[in-house]
Specification:
Radius of gyration: 20 Å
Strand content: 25-35%
Number of domains: 2
Number of helices: 1
Distance between the termini: 43 Å
Number of strands: 11
Structural class: mainly beta
Largest sheet: 5 strands, antiparallel
Length: 180
Amino acid sequence: MIRDGALVEVLVGNGWWRGGLGFVKMGIDYGSEVGFAAEILIQYADTTSANVATSMDWRAHTSAVGQNSIYDGEVIDATLAGRWLEVVEIPFDSSVLVPQVKPPIVRHEALRPVSISSSSTGSPVIDFGQNLVGWVRLRARGEPGTRVTVRHAEVLEGRTRDATAARGEGHRYVRAHRWG
């Protein structure tokens, strides 16, 4: 159900386009600008519908994600979020757009840790009991400027309880480290 004042939020990241995963590995292999275009189909209870497309009437703001990479992770800085930006139209050939043919990526379930232990440095290592693909939700407390590093891993190194960086499609373990 859509109510007055409903909000659509989209986080636009580098992805394959600008993420430096190509052959050159310079950080901007295919293009320098990121953008967002959408057409949203709204189906009302009375069986009528409406299409809402992105336009210059939309608004944009900064997010807490300062840097992002498919393999190198994200740097999140809460002080960056919330600054309103001017929406800029980026010319592109809309004839190359095709409708999404795959099912959408959706949350299937929320997993709770099966155990929490300590790494050799004393940082908590959180075990979800299975390999998974997804996001970790956590609350961190600290003074402004305090940093928390969250490292995802598929395996633990030997007997040390240190998480080894994931190189595949998912993770089982998460290590959180705070300094500041």
